[in-house]
UniProtKB/TrEMBL annotation:
Gene3D superfamilies reported in the protein's UniProt record: Immunoglobulins
Lineage: superkingdom: Eukaryota
Record keywords, A-Z: Glycoprotein, Membrane, Signal
InterPro entries per the UniProt record, alphabetical: CD2/SLAM_rcpt, Ig-like_dom_sf, Ig-like_fold, Ig_sub, Ig_V-set
Entry GO terms, CC: membrane
Domain Immunoglobulin: 19-114
Protein name in UniProt: Immunoglobulin domain-containing protein
Subcellular localization, as worded in the UniProt entry: Membrane
Species for this entry: Astyanax mexicanus (Blind cave fish)
Length: 138
């Protein structure tokens, strides 16, 4: 019995009610949080568009996908994921999944990462509208 228990870890879980939209500029950071209550699990997974970003095992081992190694932080107490130095390729759906006998999705975030903009020109005429031409770069 004691050996079987070592394969699972306790955490607190609250299931998500839909996804949250998050929008950040390129180069910024974002923290994705999870609401939790007590639950036994074999692993806790963060996914990006169905690809594993990070796996946290019941033995407390954190396994990061190579492309995120230097850009993610995982909080072992809150299970939150922080993405640093955001790139446009980080756009998409992030899911926090608790894996035991069945998988439970705890949180979903739709992340939009936008480039930086600069203003090319501004023309203003008295008693009329203002036209701003902005261009995305990066």
């Amino acid at each position: 019995q004691q050996q079987a228990d070592s394969l699972f870890r306790q955490c607190v879980v609250c299931e998500s009610n839909g996804s949250s939209d998050v929008s950040k500029p390129v180069g910024d950071s974002v923290q994705l949080d999870v609401q939790i209550k007590e639950q036994t699990f074999s692993s806790f997974i963060w996914k990006h568009n169905n690809n594993i970003v990070l796996r946290y095992t019941s033995k407390g081992k954190i396994i990061k996908h190579d492309s995120y190694k230097d850009r993610v932080q995982f909080n072992e107490e809150t299970y939150s994921l922080t993405l640093k130095n955001l790139q446009k390729t980080d756009r998409g759906l992030y899911e926090a999944i608790l894996s035991s006998e069945t998988d439970t999705t705890l949180a979903q975030y739709n992340l939009t990462v936008w480039g930086k903009y600069y203003i090319k020109s501004v023309r203003v005429k008295r008693n009329s509208s203002c036209i701003i031409h902005a261009f995305e770069f990066n």
